[in-house]
Amino acid sequence: MLELAILGLLQESPMHGYELRKELATKLGAIRAAISYGSLYPTLRRLQSAGCIAEASETPADAEEVPALTSRRGRIVYKITAEGKERFAELIAQAGPETYDDTGFGVHFAFFSRTDQATRLRILEGRRRKIEERREGLRDVLGRAAERLDAYTLELQRHGLDACEREVRWLEELIANERSGRAPDAGRAAEGGSGPDR
Fold this sequence. Notes:
Structural class: mainly alpha
Distance between the termini: 25 Å
Pfam families: PadR
Radius of gyration: 21 Å
Number of helices: 8
Mean pLDDT: 84
CATH class of the largest domain: Mainly Alpha
Number of strands: 3
Number of domains: 2
Shape: elongated
Protein name: PadR family transcriptional regulator
CATH topology of the largest domain: Arc Repressor Mutant, subunit A
Organism: Micromonospora sonneratiae
Largest sheet: 3 strands, antiparallel
Domain Transcription regulator PadR N-terminal: 6-90
């Protein structure tokens, strides 16, 4: 998932490591904690070894050739390669079980504007099934064991159930929009409208 996020961000513009960390935090929002920043540089090295990204640093010999790719201090700046663009297209087109989990779904959703409609629908429907299963599991726990749970554990289970129900409603709205060819309401999102946590 971090590989997908890095390649997606580098398609927007070349960046150095600090900028990538900052953009990951901005783009991925609440799920950024699930992606360890300790894995950022190893992932960058792996992508570089695979030829998906290249680095440029400002030196007197090449300063005129790559001024847009370097910071004033000459820090390493990463840029995506043609191979990296192909790898991003391959990753963004995936719609398997790993794209329905919390982190996988969040990263894919962050790049939905570059994902085709059929793939978006498969991911949204898969995520809805996963959350419905989670919701039914919580309902089962509450139905069978509520009397054995202390008040705080019971409240935590109810909170989880409420969150699942909100996310299912949100996903159903997104699926309906996708099927009708409408994009999510950006104005509502800017105002703090509905979403999986609302």
